[in-house]
């Protein structure tokens, strides 16, 4: 199974440099990669569309980069999910794990839980839910590619596609979160 770290957003609330914000003696994205790596066969990074301001810095991580096609770029996190799914499909994978670049404390058994839930229920999308929803800590079957393509195409005129809106149209299942802190995300600069 491949894990895709979603790092293709603008990161406006963090001044555009979200993945490389210092965190726990490291950076946010390094922490996410550290958490995800032992759980998957390989980690890929979604760097948004070619020419994203951070693409050079992201390429220095030494992991395969997945770029968004101009046709579905900058429509929100699902732009990156579609790019990852197409790359996974090209690699003959049946599914893809995603994690956002701003969740440095992901659970060590996140992927195991997602895979077990998919095996048990056959859901095309599995994600976590606790006090909040964590739709990007998820497993996506490549079967959702056609629907996601159409949804992104349709959302172009609206400037973006809401993850929640898309999930409402799909066969999803949620896993209950017991440790909410593991899904803490960092969106603002630490000014302390
Ligand atoms: N490829 C791609 N990824 C995105 C896009 N928007 C957000 N993401 C990624 O999706 C995840 C959640 O993003 P958000 O926190 O909603 O947005 P952000 O760009 O990181 O931050 P803000 O600009 O401050 O909202 C992050 O890992 C982002 O890198 C997009 O338009 N394209």
TrEMBL record:
Keywords linked to the UniProt accession: Cytoplasm, GTP-binding, Magnesium, Metal-binding, Molybdenum cofactor biosynthesis, Nucleotide-binding, Transferase
Pfam families: NTP_transf_3
One MF annotation (Gene Ontology) recorded for this entry: transferase activity
CDD domains: MobA
Domain MobA-like NTP transferase, residue spans: 3-165
Signal peptide segment: none
Keyword rRNA-binding on entry: no
Keyword Nucleus found: no
Name recorded for this polypeptide: NTP transferase domain-containing protein
Organism: Asticcacaulis aquaticus
């Amino acid at each position: 199974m491949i894990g895709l770290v979603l790092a293709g957003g603008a990161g406006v609330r963090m001044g555009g440099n979200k993945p490389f914000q210092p965190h726990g003696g490291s950076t946010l994205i390094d922490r996410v990669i550290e958490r995800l790596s032992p759980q998957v066969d390989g980690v890929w990074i979604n760097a948004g569309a070619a020419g994203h301001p951070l693409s050079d810095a992201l390429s220095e991580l030494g992991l395969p980069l997945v770029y968004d096609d101009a046709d579905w770029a900058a429509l929100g996190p699902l732009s990156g999910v579609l790019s990852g799914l197409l790359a996974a499909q090209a690699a003959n994978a049946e599914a893809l794990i995603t994690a956002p670049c701003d969740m440095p404390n992901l659970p060590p058994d996140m992927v195991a839980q997602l895979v077990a839930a998919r095996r048990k229920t056959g859901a095309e999308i599995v994600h976590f839910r606790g006090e909040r929803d964590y739709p990007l800590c998820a497993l996506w079957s490549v079967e959702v590619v056609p629907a996601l393509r159409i949804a992104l195409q349709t959302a172009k005129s609206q400037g973006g596609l809401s993850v929640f809106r898309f999930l409402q149209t799909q066969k999803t299942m949620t896993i209950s979160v017991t440790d909410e802190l593991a899904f803490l995300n960092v969106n603002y600069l630490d000014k302390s």
